[in-house]
Batch of 2 targets.
Target 1
Amino acid sequence: MRPYLGLLRMSTRRILTYRLNSLILWIGGATFLAGSLAVWHALLSQGAIGGYDWDQMKAYLLVGWATASIGSAYGDWWMASRIFDGHVATDLTKPLDYQWARFSEHMGGLATEFIAIAIAATAIVTFTGGLVVPGPGQALLFAVSFLLVAPLKFTIAYITTMACFWTQNFMGVSWAKDAVVTLFSGALIPLALLPAWLAGPAAVLPFASITATPAALYLGQATGWEALRLLAVQAAWVLVLWWGARLIWRRALRALTVHGG
Amino acid sequence: MSLVEARGLTKIFRRPEKDPGLRGSLKHLVQRRFKDFRAVDGIDLSIEAGESVAYVGPNGAGKSTTIKLLTGILVPTAGTVRVAGAEPHTDRMVNARNIGVLFGQRTQLWWDLPVRESLALLRDMYDLSPAFYKQRLERLDEVLGLADLLPVVARKLSLGQRMRADLAAALLHQPKIVYLDEPTIGLDISVKDRVRQFLRELRQDGTTLMLTTHDLGDIEDVCERIVIIDEGRKIFDGPLAQMKDRFARVRRMHLQLAEPTPVEKLAERLPDVEVIAGDSPTEVTVTFDRFTHTAGQIIAGVLDVVEVGELHLDEPAIEDVVRKVYAGELLR
Amino acid sequence: MRRTLRIYRRSLGAHLRAVLEYEADFWVLIVAGLLFQVLNLIFLSAVFAHVPALNGWSYPEAVLLAGTYGFVNGLGPLFFEGTWRLAGKINHGELDYPLTRPAPVLVQVVSGGIGLHGVGDLIGGGAMIGWGLAHSDIDWSPARIGGGLLLLASSATILLSLIVVGNAASFWVGGNHPVFAMTLIRTGDMAKYPLSIYGVAVRATFTVLVPYAFISFFPASWLLGKESAWIGLLTPLVALYCVYLARLVFRLGLRRYDSAGH
């Protein structure tokens, strides 16, 4: 356990070392949020769309942005670059489980991401006049679901980086992943507003657990048994992807040609 | 006028002075404090066409900075530079056609391109005619063995291959003067020899060379003139032989004695010199200052005690001199 | 100038050949670029399924606007991708060699790479422009066509110049990644929607301070004959100003370059 905590601390410190970089990335993220807010403000000025009024949409966008921020400080790029520059060989000689080690580093970024999310929430409350807040029960459900987003996003990023064993260029893969996740998680637009041919796949893919589930719990759209069912689905995806990643990793090791070596 | 003329060349880097931590960074934003660092401090240097100059000094002495000032990469804080009549940092493009540069630690090849593409790009930048380019490639292939490297992507080259390709890149346009910053760093012996052989041939072709190195073999093999700098200042500039005369005072004589002799007995007869026993009882090494003793005096002294079978004298090694400079012993 | 262009073309060509070596990457990148444009389209179509107009912009008009922004954004990776490596080059002292070569440093930097995802943006953005134009009510004339092309070229020039300005900021900001440039360019993403949905502060900033609005909003407004359409005709002037600014900032930055310290 101790070496993993060490990795976690190291990655927090690394992000803090590059705090100027982090700061500017947050500002970039904030302008994206500001853009979405402006579009929806204009759209909702004539009334609710698909059951979302302005107050709910504000909360939805904040949750969407927050879940998108999770895991962004310690991104898949770091993992990918270690595979490309051949560092993965060094990582493999260490007496650590590779997947747990990367997961620890991923979690190391959370502290700074939470700060960014808190700042964004404060800004929304200040500049747009208030924010819908869930009752204590829903808040608890939301908190659990929000915490599950971290390992879920990790497994997706981790599986994506393994494409590096087969392709020379991670950029395209990473973007394709980002596009798919953005669409099917609900970060682009609430899934209920998607046309049927997209809403169908979104319902069965794991990505809805990233944004749509926490948002539904926050806004109180899912309560009681339905809320628990969503949490169970989320947890199940974490487990399935975690073990799926192990399977792929085993195959990747067989394909391992350390790049540039 | 010399090919390279530098007068009072000075480069001062300004480094921000920050307190540690986030508070320090924020404080620095409000109240900016800087510390000056003199990397090169009033250097005068003239290099004639056809000379080959070794530019030597410990890490951080200002070697690379000087090269960067002479090549136009950095703008001097004070002083003047002329290279073949042009001022490098203002007439950058003119100067660029006259010079070839190699930084041993870094490659100028495009990382994701095959060597052939990198060389072709340089051909376009230097406006080389197809005939000239072909002839240069053939010549460089002869001495550097380029042919098998051409189709390889730069990032897949080994260090030795990379250095060969980089030398070709630096010399493709047949520059008048070539600056080499640690051209043999990290290379194994056989590649090193090949590079040195190549540099010797380059010198014979009449190319002016200036090289910085930590490898003293490079200097003895390639250069006839040596410039030593430390803390940004020149502390010696002259022929290699003269430097040995001036700084290499210590010589070593190895003797094969006719019969085993205790070193104490020899030491008694030879005061002020160091006598050390060799591998066998009949071998000794005598270390002496050649300004206080001659080799003849040493031999005479030993012959007083015992017959000598064979002897040989180590030439003064510049290695010893430079090591002393590095250790700070030779500074005024 | 012709010589500079030739060097630029050859350098870009060499990098193009290099990336084409990896066929799988080629397709992945193009699909990735295309996906982002598809995403924009899905967003707009989902929204316009519920509302008839966004601040006076109809569905085809909004698609035209977003398509223009996407199309122009595809030119960056295709023609100026090397610029994004400037921060790393400054940080590692890798401008040393370019400074010793007889070619403009900016050209060497800008042409030092190619991003094929730009092709996806061009295809996706281009298709959206085409569809948007076909379904919008435009009073076509030779002047309108010529003007439209001129404005498109100008808006591309503005974006490419902004890429240079943002990345040249690395001469001052430091660090290994072009975070400032990323922020600058990603903020521009807000310009894929009609400018009128934003508050007055954003509108002023995007018009005067950083002219994102001239990348898509004002040119499209001119083409569609929206209110204050005439501002769109200023786009070429703004483009010239941006080119001047980019060259100035890069030159000033290069003077600060200290080759990683020693």
Target 2
Amino acid sequence: MASKRKYKGIDQLSKRDKIVVSLMVIVPTLLVLWLVWFPAVGTVLLSFTNWDGIGPLSGIKPVGLQNYIDIATIYPPFWPAIQHNLIWLAVLFFIATPLGILFAVLVDRGVSGTRFYQTSIYLPVVLSLALIGFIWQLIYSRDQGLLNAITGGTTDWYGDPDVNLWAVLVAASWRHAGYIMLLYLAGLKGVDPSLREAAKIDGASETTTFFRVILPVMRPINIIVIVVTFIESLRAFDIVWVINKGRNGLELISALVTQNVVGEASRIGFGSALATIMLLISSVLVVIYLRIAMKED
Amino acid sequence: MTRPSSEAEYLARMVPPSVRGVDRRTLLRGALGVGALIGAGTLASCGSSSDSGAGVPTGAVSGTVTVGSNQSDAVPKAAVQSYMDAFAKANPGTTVKINTVDHNSFQENINNYLQGSPDDVFTWFAGYRMQFFAEKGLVGDISDVWKNMPGMGDAMKKASTGADGKQYFVPITNYPWAVFYRKSLFADKGYEVPKTLDDLKTLGAKMQKDGIAPIAFGDKDGWPAMGTFDQLNLRINGYDFHVSLMAGKEAWTDPKVKKVFDTWAGILPLHQPDSLGRTWQEAAQSLQQKKSGMYVLGSFLAQQFAKGAEQDDLDFFAFPEIDSTIGTDAVEAPIDGYMMSARPKNEAAAKKLLQYISQPEAQLLALKADPSVIATNSNADTSGYTALQKKSAEFVKSAKSITQFMDRDTRPDFASTVMIPAIQEFIKNPSDIDGLTTKIEAQKKSIFGS
């Protein structure tokens, strides 16, 4: 008699269940199609046109690869932007992220006043963009800034294209480190304390314990941290936009896309080509991440 | 885990002006003006060429008229409210509904706004972009309103006319660009207002000896230096060439353009160094503190000076003559005003409102918000003007031709994505003019050719 209860596929579901299941599948699918795939494909298609954002879609003229050719050959900000994105990635990866992890470990060890440190390091992440722009303007302004007032220098922190990227990276790292700290701290809190005790009993030093025991246990968090770092450096945008709209030494791909698409400029086709390039670069990362994630399972 | 940082992806338009470095548009656009001045003597009478239909209602209008305003700052917003209220009061049965949008958002979303369901009347500026909207049929023909605009001179009419010869725009206020200085500084040090480029260089050398930066300069936001280019081009090549260059009809590799950059390179050492990290406000403050001697900017610079004695100490002169055959009679004086959407819901009231805006009563109310601009109607009573306003009015009136500003006289995509980086590049490296103009020309061809 038990065989009667055997699952016989979807036919066995009641009508109501079927409706519920279909809705649960269809609604999210449509949302993803509408909000993710439609704009993405639309962007790629528009990148082969010179649409200016005005008039019916039928008025769009295809221009083939012209936008891409222009970007690579006669658009001066493009190559600096690629270079800056790479520098951004390197700095976040080798400096800001390790710093955030270090903060997390220190805070986790329960230094006195932990809560205070935790809050102050995380604060930059919570502050609004407007405030961040304001804070760093106060510090970096050439004529009226704190930094030059203290050192008596005349360095043009925001205006000198050889210096401003690094000045901004300090600000970006300031935020990024706090963010990574919080992520990592959450992970550390979840590590079974008995592992540490066992390591201690075996005579391992603090450092050894961290690198040999804690770090491997934290693998999932490590991957998230790496992915977050990559994503943050690719979509880096807000700080440079507040400072000078991503010009003069602060070119980033995301800022170029915005300059061209948003606003009066309305070079939708050209901007879409830049966005498509950004999409391609991001896809490489997504593929790598998915491969790692799938392997885990 | 939630990711608070994603909240940070705000666009800069959400940043308050105090942080962003307020730009002239935020403060001025739109608002106010007085004007006119231009060509006041000659007149409005010639404006009978237009031929449109309905005509401005002379009788009563009623219903609601909607107004899209980019005057989001408190003071100009109140000014808009005051003259809209005055209009409603004068036309019983009419209500004016003002939809105020953050200034930058308004500007950035203008394309979508006009293609959606725009308000009957909305704020905009004279220039290329205005004509472009007209050409695309996104705005309404108001030639009939122009038949009844006492006090609006020929120059104003020309600035309001699209490529098809019809009018699409009603000016309210404008303001001149010139070389500003403090009278007290010039008096103390015995400086004289330079008449020619050579005078300017001599004066600059003197100021440098006195430990003063001759010309204040800040181009962090990218647009202020466009004003210097405009002045030089108007003085070296004249109005016609400038307009034609802005319209994409001349080559940027033309020796005439190279001469502009060359001349600029010659006086660049007189400018404040490290200008790319400085906002125009900071540069204006250096003028105010007498750390610099002169500043090529629009009269909105007065906003950085305290009202009263300090503003009275501020004076200006036309950018010096470079070529005596060209002279100095071209003036850059951007005009702010209103347009009507292509299919207004209440056309009669919209036209009556536009007519009202062209008249002194509305314009003087607008001026109250920002005394650094002037009314565009030549009948406006100037007795309440500050010394600077009076001089601005005279200056604009004396001009033989008037330009708007690079980013209003040419395609906005060309101005913002090509010229801003190009001029900043020039400031960083003034020696490679050939390379620079070649790059500009290549991009110009691509943009204007599309």
